Amino acid sequence: MNWPLRWDLLMRYRLIEIVAYWEGRLTTNHLCNSFGIGRQQASKDINAYLLDIAPSNLLYDKYLKGYIPSKNFAPKLTTGTADEYLHVLSRNKDIVHTFQGLDLGFAHTEMLQVPLRRIDPVILRSLVQASREHKRVDLSYISMTSGIEEDRIIVPHTLVCTPLRWHVRAYCEKHRDFRDFVLSRFRGNPEILNESKFTGEADKIWNKEITLKIVPDSRLGEAQQEIIARDFDMKNRCLDIKIRAPLVAYMLQALNIDPHKQEIHPEAQQIVIGNFREIEHYLF
Q: Quick check: pTM over 0.85?
């Protein structure tokens, strides 16, 4: 393999690895739609990856009309962690690992990496497929409430990224409502079942958008409040964040705001919720 590879080609090779490994199926459409290239070029890229990078990583499946990861799949240009795939979904591509040895300006950059939670690729593939096809999934889950492994049948519809973890929004047949399930707490071998009517459209709370108002802590001095307002690009000292209702609590965690207590020193928290009564219903 000639190194370094062209930047654009390396990006396509990385996508090949990430999609094949975590979705369990790679087609030329993945490359065509992601990079705006033709089907012939996409097919050429896949063949070049197999020839020059990892000859034994992918197998063509005529039934699925695409490539699947082999049993001996070994990432060559990626880390093989779920975070890479999930960041592709959120369009926040993590390229530090692949390019850390290249002279691209990363030498003087330090990134704080939150410890990753272990996610089983077999489980994630099943959740992705079930979400795409609106199907039920039978698998095991360990909740913080019970602390024991329980069989669950869920209907997933959306993967959600927060600064500390990934979870899936899904209908739970046991509780008969839509809930959040932490991806690292699933266990066992998932079984995909039949289609369900409980799709994302049926999740009323998920489809409810609210506005979270963030303002400087009023205990700060005028000059300090103005600094905070400028930090967050507030308008009239208020930052309006439009967000799906079930994600309010996660946003507050990301902003380091505990809605149930107030820091003794306003400098420690700096910002507070400006419309608590309107959003408290959606907190944990």
A: no
